[in-house]
Amino acid sequence: MNVLLTILLAVQMLSAVVMVGLILVQHGKGADMGAAFGSGGSGSLFGASGSANFLSRTTAVLATVFFVSTLGLAYFGSARPAASSGSVLENAALVAPAPVAAIPAVPASGAAQIPSK
């Protein structure tokens, strides 16, 4: 169970980091307006419209992976062992309190040693 939680957490963190990178690489909706007036936006790595399709689909897949791993972590994180039932306070009442060690006597402070009139 612990290995599964570690794998889910790793998948969630990797998908989040890659998704943030992909979102930052994508152009906004208003970026095409600048290309229409000659600022040269068509010379990109994936072509004029290929980057939008590839990056948006990859972002959607990573968002789905992130969402599924979050649901898995929430499910396994809320799972309780079969032996524990009831609230935390009820379980705490069943546990015996820890013995308290005797505290040594503190010597009198300097103010107690000053003679009074």
Task: Describe the structure in your own words.
- The chain is mainly alpha-helical and 117 residues long.
- It has a domain at 1-21 and 45-80.
- Helices cover 56% and strands 0% of the residues.
- The chain is built from four helices and no strands.
- The chain has helices at residues 2-25, 31-36, 50-78, 88-94.
- Helix 1 (2-25) packs antiparallel against helix 3 (50-78).
- The longest helix has 29 residues, at 50-78.
- The model has no long low-confidence stretch (mean pLDDT 76).
- It is found in: Cell membrane.
- InterPro entries: SecG (IPR004692).
- Keywords: Cell membrane, Membrane, Protein transport, Translocation, Transmembrane, Transmembrane helix, Transport.
- This is Protein-export membrane protein SecG.
Brief descriptors of the model:
mainly alpha; 56% helix; transmembrane; cell membrane; SecG; protein transport; 117 residues; protein-transporting ATPase activity
